[in-house]
Design brief:
heterodimer; A: 212 residues; mainly alpha; 2 domains; two-stranded antiparallel sheet; 2 strands; 67% helix; flat; B: 111 residues; alpha+beta; Arc Repressor Mutant, subunit A; three-stranded antiparallel beta sheet; 4 helices; 3 strands; globular
């Protein structure tokens, strides 16, 4: 089967969140349809007629009943994620401090080389700490739609139209975390019809429970 | 006609169109797309990929029913047939459509 056809199908599937059965049904139907269409037209024509992967996914998600994830489940997932982050951040921080104290204060000869190597490692560790804090959530949510904590609890972040979010949405909805008002932000959840944080509204995202 | 208007019109009538075609004879997805294009013309060209989600919705609502049919050659095809509920729903949709368009046409013709 044509490689570009498979790429097209995967693009559609990446944008939808649905149970394995529903996914499979769409995948099979799209493949059968494309195979038949390709007997009459060439690939660019066929793909143009299919519509953008995003459009197909959106139409698909219009028929899916979403279950919005509530406050406590999301809080629990958040705590798990914080624990994962601390697992990386704390050792990096402690080792960084230890190395920092080991940097020779009155260097002579070889001490300069040792000091330089130590400082290099300290910087790397510091970057790890800052990087984890800044990137853990948006990278995982932007790329996979969920963090480790959300995966464990069966949650997923999607766009309001049902399709997968990208890095832009992932960063936008994370702003309250960076600026330390996520607790206030999360207080919106119980009161919103779709259980969104204030920054979910802004980023036009939802957190749903997956039906797997 | 703007894309937006066309999309909204299609969204509102695609269900009726699919039920009507399936009321005439059983078809599989690709045939449905071809039939829609042939019978309604360019103005109703659906993005072919978006037809399947519509079919799933009709199926989940028990208005149509899939079954597998092995062809003379090649892979089996998933045909759809209309259910009794589907036939009933189609009648309702047609009536609504006629009342609605009659009203709008009257408006457009003016005094």
């Amino acid at each position: 089967m044509n490689e570009e056809v498979e790429i097209y199908i995967q693009k559609v599937l990446r944008h939808i969140s649905a149970s394995g059965e529903d996914r499979q049904r769409l995948e099979d139907d799209l493949r059968a349809h494309l195979r038949e269409a390709l007997e009459k037209d060439d690939l660019p024509t066929v793909l143009a007629k299919m519509g953008k992967p995003q459009e197909v996914a959106e139409e698909f998600m219009r028929g899916v009943r979403l279950k919005y994830a509530g406050f406590w489940k999301r809080l629990f997932a958040f705590i798990i994620d914080l624990a994962f982050c601390l697992l990386v951040i704390l050792p990096s921080f402690v080792i960084g401090l230890v190395l920092n104290n080991a940097v020779p204060q009155r260097p002579e000869g070889l001490d300069y080389v040792i000091g330089a190597i130590l400082i290099f490692f300290i910087l790397a560790l510091a970057l790890t700490v800052v990087g984890t804090f800044l990137l853990y959530f948006p990278i995982l949510e932007g790329r996979y739609g969920r963090t480790l904590g959300k995966k464990l609890l069966g949650l997923r972040v999607i766009r309001e139209n049902g399709t997968s979010i990208g890095f832009k949405e992932a960063f936008l909805r994370r702003l309250p975390f960076y600026f330390d008002f996520i607790a206030i932000d999360a207080l919106f959840i119980p009161f919103m019809a779709k259980k969104q944080r204030a920054f979910d509204l802004i980023a036009q995202t939802l957190v749903i429970e997956e039906t797997r | 006609m703007s894309d937006m208007v066309r999309r909204q019109l299609k969204r509102g009538t695609l269900e009726m169109a699919v039920l009507k075609l399936l009321a005439e004879r059983d078809m599989y997805g690709y045939q449905l797309v071809a039939a829609l294009e042939e019978r309604v013309g360019e103005s109703f060209q659906v993005k072919e990929g978006t037809l399947y989600p519509v079919l799933y919705r009709l199926e989940d609502a028990n208005l149509i029913e899939p079954y597998w049919e092995p062809p003379e050659r090649g892979v089996p095809r998933k045909y759809y047939k209309i259910t009794p509920q589907g036939t009933k729903r189609l009648q309702e949709l047609i009536e609504e459509w006629q009342v609605f368009t009659a009203g709008v046409n009257k408006l457009l013709e003016g005094k």
